[in-house]
UniProtKB/TrEMBL annotation:
GO terms for biological process: DNA transposition. InterPro entries: Transposase_mutator. This is Mutator family transposase. PANTHER family: MUTATOR FAMILY TRANSPOSASE, TRANSPOSASE FOR INSERTION SEQUENCE ELEMENT IS1081. It holds the Pfam family Transposase_mut.
Amino acid sequence: MTMPSPRASVYTAPSEAAATERFLEFSEKWGTKYPAVVKLWSDAWAEMVPFLSLDVEIRKVICSTNAIESVNARIRKAVRARGHFPSENAALKCIYMALMSLDPTGKGRRRWTMRWKAPLNAFQIAFEGRLTPTTH
């Protein structure tokens, strides 16, 4: 089992004090090689601290953009293959078809639901009432 990098340890730290400790370890190890990165983090520390008050599951979602990047790549590929669209509706249909091709059988929804269950629960607790639609 490999130890997580000090950088990753900062984002996954359970508290601000622990994150500060991990950052100091990171700075000590990499500061001479990458002083600009250490300065960037130091300068932005006040903006990063509120992030640590979020649930760990929420932090994982915020830090990972792989799923979003994958969807965007599929949409770009579909749009580029088409070239141009006679109307906005045609463009929307192209994007819709690209999104539906990500999971043509619908079996991926179960995996998606299980993977997102913990983060969605954390979002529901942290942002109570904001995730459920309101009826007027």
